[in-house]
């Protein structure tokens, strides 16, 4: 059965700043997923309010939005069989300190002692989120 999906991936400002965009795209392509869209973007408060609506009111929400506005992000749409789950697995756990070696966050991330986990990447967590997030970042797709 084919289950080709699209997922919204962001290389967050820490990843772009540290020059890891290429390494992260390399890992996505090495896994076998296709890049359907790639664009260096500046997030806006409006985009982030929509993107992170589920986290509004949480203690890390303000610092998260501030962090995401601190520099450009690489917005990416990936495509492939079960790529939503597959990219979450490539990314690793939210906390880069405990993310498994071999994952993007586990190999390339660490705790910087800041109010928000600067964990390099975002990946949609369900088909519903992917459709919603692709609509936010790439309304023309
Ligand atoms: P995910 O990115 O692994 O899916 P979410 O729970 O959706 O994690 O959280 C969104 C983002 O908010 C995380 O990637 C991280 O940057 C930040 N975040 C989540 N939980 C915490 C926390 O407990 N402290 C600080 N930052 C957090």
Automatic annotation (TrEMBL):
The active site is at 122 (pros-phosphohistidine intermediate). Its EC number is 2.7.4.6. It comes from the Bacteria. Pfam families: NDK. The keyword Phosphoprotein applies. Gene3D superfamilies: Nucleoside diphosphate kinase-like domain (3.30.70.141). Its main location: cytoplasm. Residues 4-141 form the Nucleoside diphosphate kinase-like domain. It is found in: Cytoplasm. Its cofactor is Mg(2+). It is an enzyme of class 2 (transferase). GO terms for molecular function: nucleoside diphosphate kinase activity. ATP binds at residues 12, 60, 88, 94, 105, 119. Keywords: ATP-binding, Cytoplasm, Kinase, Magnesium, Metal-binding, Nucleotide metabolism, Nucleotide-binding, Phosphoprotein, Transferase. Homotetramer. Major role in the synthesis of nucleoside triphosphates other than ATP. The ATP gamma phosphate is transferred to the NDP beta phosphate via a ping-pong mechanism, using a phosphorylated active-site intermediate. This is Nucleoside diphosphate kinase. It comes from Nocardioides baculatus.
């Amino acid at each position: 059965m084919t289950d080709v999906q699209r997922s919204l991936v962001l290389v967050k400002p820490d990843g772009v700043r540290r020059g890891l965009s290429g390494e992260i795209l390399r890992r996505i392509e090495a896994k076998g997923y296709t890049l359907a869209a790639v664009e260096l973007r500046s997030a806006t408060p409006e985009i982030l309010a929509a993107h992170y609506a589920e986290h509004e009111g949480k203690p890390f929400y303000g610092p998260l939005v501030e962090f995401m506005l601190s520099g450009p992000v690489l917005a990416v749409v990936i495509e492939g069989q079960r790529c939503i789950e597959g990219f979450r697995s490539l990314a690793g756990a939210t906390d880069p300190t405990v993310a498994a070696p071999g994952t993007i966050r586990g190999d390339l991330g660490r705790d910087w002692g800041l109010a928000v986990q600067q964990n390099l990447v975002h990946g949609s967590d369900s088909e519903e989120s992917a459709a919603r997030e692709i609509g936010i970042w790439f309304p023309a797709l």
